[in-house]
Write a structure and sequence with these properties.
This protein is of the alpha/beta class. The chain is built from ten helices and twelve strands. The radius of gyration is 25 Å and the shape is globular.
Length: about 325
């Protein structure tokens, strides 16, 4: 009888141990797992260039950490084949969630479908992949282009000779180009006299060199009215070339914004008059927040659009340097 009682007690103890071990997976961690079971998030980037990208990554990282997760960044350095390989690696390593930044359907459709088939939550940013149930976070690129171009037209009486800096092969750029073409039809007295643009690991410096060549081709005051730069890396390069050439009668209008951009806009002789932008840190936070909503099984719309704001040089104070963190003091809608 005593032997039977001891066996029963041992069985109950063993069962209790098993139940305790199983219950541990529930936990109270904000990412949905137990302490020490952080959700692993992969950020698959086409390239990491400039301070905009740095601030975007900081936003992603802050939101991942807020949710108790761990972030791994895969940077393809502009190589779409490498980006596709990085996406495959993230899927094969069974990350709990995957973020894609500036990919293309041509390169990544197959990898994205593989992630979906393995039930890995996937969220895109400025990427032209279309899959049911896969959200796309985007900046409303056509509005970004419209805000900056309309400011160019307003400042210059709806006329003038302009230089366009733009590059094909990026989903947001293609959308901005649609707005640009409509702009030229709306303002027939605005003439494009030159267009160029390349995306590289040194985009701003390459742009500066190319803009210097354009300035030599059009050496007289009045030859060029303004530059429309479809990316802040382009705007930085154009601004520096114009400053160094002493041609600050040429005005620059851009898209995107960072701390470095703000410093350039606030230079005493800066030709950079306005830029349309969404806070890159907010983009990163929303991108990561969306994947955690997917992980938790919450309903998320397929399109998550962030509203851009026009930041004018005249909005910025003359007596102090402004950073992204305090820009909302001078631009009412910034960061909302």
């Amino acid at each position: 009888m005593k032997k039977k009682f001891r066996l029963t007690c041992l069985a109950i103890l063993a069962l209790s141990t098993v139940l305790t071990a199983c219950g541990g997976a529930g936990g109270n961690n904000a990412a949905g797992g137990a302490e020490g079971n952080a959700k692993r998030i992969a950020l698959v980037m086409r390239q990491n260039v400039g301070t905009f990208s740095a601030q975007y990554i900081n936003g992603v990282k802050a939101e991942v950490e807020k949710n108790g997760g761990e972030l791994t960044v895969f940077n393809a350095e502009g190589d779409l084949a490498k980006m596709a390989s990085n996406l495959d690696a993230a899927v094969n390593q069974h990350f709990d969630g995957i973020l894609i930044d500036h990919g293309t359907a041509e390169a990544l459709q197959q990898g994205a479908e593989k992630a979906v088939s393995k039930k890995i939550p996937l969220v895109l940013f400025d990427t032209d992949i279309k899959l049911p149930g896969v959200p796309v976070v985007e900046q409303d690129d056509q509005k970004l282009a419209d805000l900056s171009l309309e400011k160019l037209a307003a400042d210059n009486g709806g006329k003038g000779n302009i230089v366009k800096i733009w590059v094909a092969g990026f989903a947001p750029m293609e959308k901005r180009q649609i707005t640009y073409e409509a702009f030229l039809k709306k303002y027939p007295d605005v003439k494009e006299i030159a267009a160029f643009g390349t995306a590289s690991n040194n985009t701003a410096l390459d742009t500066q060199t190319q803009m210097e060549a354009i300035l030599k081709k059009y050496p007289n005051k009045g030859d060029i009215t303004a530059v429309w730069a479809s990316w802040d890396e382009f705007a930085k390069g154009a601004t520096r070339a114009i400053q160094q050439a002493g041609r600050t009668e040429i005005k620059v209008y851009g898209i995107d914004l960072s701390d470095e951009d703000l410093q350039l806009m606030q230079d005493a002789d800066s030709p950079w008059k306005a830029t349309a932008a969404v806070d890159p840190s907010n983009i990163g936070r929303v991108h990561a927040e969306t994947v955690f909503k997917k992980i938790k099984g919450e309903q998320v719309p397929d399109s998550v659009k962030l509203n851009p704001v026009l930041v004018n040089q005249d909005d910025l104070p003359k007596d102090k340097k402004v950073t992204m963190s305090d820009l909302s003091q001078y631009v009412k809608e910034w960061g909302k």
